[in-house]
């Protein structure tokens, strides 16, 4: 596994100086800056920077503000409407009394007329009040709706940041949890096929040891890019571990998956990573498992992992199918 991002600048500087002395390089400002920047960009698959976490929190705060505003608007609207309802009810009661008095001729017509006029004024002003409250609330609600739309966009962006492996751009394991459930449900609903493949780079430690961890990182990026190029757009690539990738092949059975992996093997064989003028060959082992009717996504991934284990033990550079 790669080391977590050292967020403390002093710690980064210490590591940069150590790496320089390991390589016998003089600590010139250029050398130092190059190593410092390279270390800053190293990230563990699951680690997130303080800034990324802060972004996520900001969205939560905005959401909290919008919910608070919505609560205030709704409360204002309800209290105003209930006040107006009480006034209307009073007016209707008085109207009934005036009608009865008029029918029994117990009140002179001029008095009835004056009372009716008063009541009408009350009803008009209450209706006017209700109308202006509804108009204001309508515009407040529109503002809140716009805020919520922005929050939705922020959430989608944050989700992407939180579920993406910063080094390779593949999904991280958090992202896998979410998508695996979705794809398994979709496959079961549509009676479709779904296959998981786990690939693990062979002898990767030797690449790190020989060319440094930073070059190892670039080899991982290279591998992720080659894999993305071989996959269909609907397929899903996940950084499953340090030097392990998981691929979810949608609408594909294990035979189709084996074909895709053969193609990937061909492509990686023909496209070594070039470090200056040196070729770094990338080889991998793979385990394949197709979703069964009676299992969930995790069980499928576990079977792919077991198949990978067999591929590793049978000499590496091979693909094994799960039982
Ligand atoms: N550069 C780099 N190396 C990593 C990263 N994550 C894990 N590794 C390295 O991957 C290597 C994995 O070593 P091993 O588990 O022994 O596997 P291997 O050397 O690939 O050998 P086999 O899998 O048995 O073929 C270790 O040296 C880890 O430090 C990473 O993010 N970047």
From TrEMBL:
Matching InterPro entries: Diguanylate_Cyclase (IPR050469), GGDEF_dom (IPR000160), Nucleotide_cyclase (IPR029787), Rev_trsase/Diguanyl_cyclase (IPR043128)
Cellular-component GO terms for this entry: plasma membrane
Enzyme type, top EC level: transferase
BP GO annotations: cell adhesion involved in single-species biofilm formation; negative regulation of bacterial-type flagellum-dependent cell motility
Coiled coil, from the record: none
CDD domains registered for this protein in UniProt: GGDEF
Gene3D superfamilies: 3.30.70.270
GO molecular function per UniProt: diguanylate cyclase activity
Domain annotation GGDEF: ranges: 192-323
Enzyme Commission number: 2.7.7.65
Pfam families noted in UniProt: GGDEF
Domain of life: Bacteria
Reactions listed under catalytic activity: 2 GTP = 3',3'-c-di-GMP + 2 diphosphate
Protein name: diguanylate cyclase
């Amino acid at each position: 596994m790669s080391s977590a991002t050292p967020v403390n600048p002093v710690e980064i500087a210490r590591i940069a100086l150590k790496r320089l002395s390991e390589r016998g390089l003089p600590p010139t400002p250029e050398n130092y800056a190059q190593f410092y920047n390279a270390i800053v960009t190293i990230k563990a698959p699951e680690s997130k920077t303080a800034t990324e976490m802060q972004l996520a929190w900001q969205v939560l705060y905005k959401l909290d503000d919008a919910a608070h505003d919505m609560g205030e608007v709704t409360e204002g609207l309800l209290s105003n409407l209930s006040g107006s309802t009480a006034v209307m009810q009073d007016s209707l009661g008085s109207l009934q009394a005036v009608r009865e008095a008029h029918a029994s001729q117990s009140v002179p017509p001029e008095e009835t007329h004056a009372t009716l006029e008063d009541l009408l004024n009350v009803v008009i002003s209450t209706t006017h009040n209700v109308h202006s409250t509804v108009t204001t609330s309508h515009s407040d609600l529109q503002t809140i709706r716009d805020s919520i739309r922005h929050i939705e966009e922020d959430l989608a962006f944050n989700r992407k940041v939180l579920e993406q492996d910063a080094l390779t751009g593949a999904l991280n394991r958090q992202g896998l949890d979410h998508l695996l459930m979705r794809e398994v449900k979709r496959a079961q609903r549509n009676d479709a096929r779904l296959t998981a493949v786990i690939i693990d780079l062979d002898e990767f430690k030797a690449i790190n040891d020989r060319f440094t961890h930073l070059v190892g990182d670039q080899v991982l990026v290279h591998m992720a890019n080659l894999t993305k190029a071989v996959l269909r757009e609907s397929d899903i690539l996940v950084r499953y571990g340090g030097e392990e990738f998981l691929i979810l092949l949608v609408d594909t059975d294990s035979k189709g998956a084996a074909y895709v992996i053969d193609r990937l093997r061909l492509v990686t064989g023909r496209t070594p990573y070039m470090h200056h003028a040196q070729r770094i060959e990338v080889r991998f082992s793979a385990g394949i498992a197709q979703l069964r009717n009676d299992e969930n996504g995790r069980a499928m991934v576990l079977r792919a992992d077991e198949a990978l284990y067999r591929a590793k033990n049978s000499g590496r550079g091979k693909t094994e199918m799960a039982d």
